[in-house]
User: Fold these one by one.
Assistant:
Number 1:
Amino acid sequence: MCEKDNISECSLCGAETYRSKLIDGICNKCVTGENKQCTKCGEYFNKNKLSSDSLCTKCSIKLHKRLRASEVNEIVECVECGREVLVNDLNDKGLCIYCHCEGLESEIKKLKYKKRACY
């Protein structure tokens, strides 16, 4: 029996797994509730990657951009850490100043390392 014949996709999240591991076409992560549905787009994600409003990162960023464009300075969650901040205090990727600074700090370290490697 060919291995490809035994592999199937979960009907909810689309993850590939063995047919024997699927329960009525649904993977174990979806059955146990580890994967949840985004309330806006309907796609399935790990529940730890969803906001408290059950929005995926992509939908959260779209919401943040709409709020910023409408000049409503509402309290929202940072996409990365979940910290509550005003929407105007987030960058374009939905990151608060703390997460944004951590990202910049790691990039500076990488550039310094590359610079040392060149000498």
Number 2:
Amino acid sequence: MKLVSEREKLGLTQEEVAKNLGISQTLVARMEKGDLRGSDRTKIKMAHLYGTTVGALFFGEPNTLSNKKG
């Protein structure tokens, strides 16, 4: 799932994500499994942490953020 792959790209554990977002590790796991969606606020914070957009992370939209300088 997209949430897992994005977290793993950053080398983060579910516990680290949970601490950064101020939620439980269980909630992170359930969001990754698709059991829960999480609040809009949590989605925004997670997308920011992962360096992407809510649309790209949760809805398969293209990532409109670019870290490229030039």
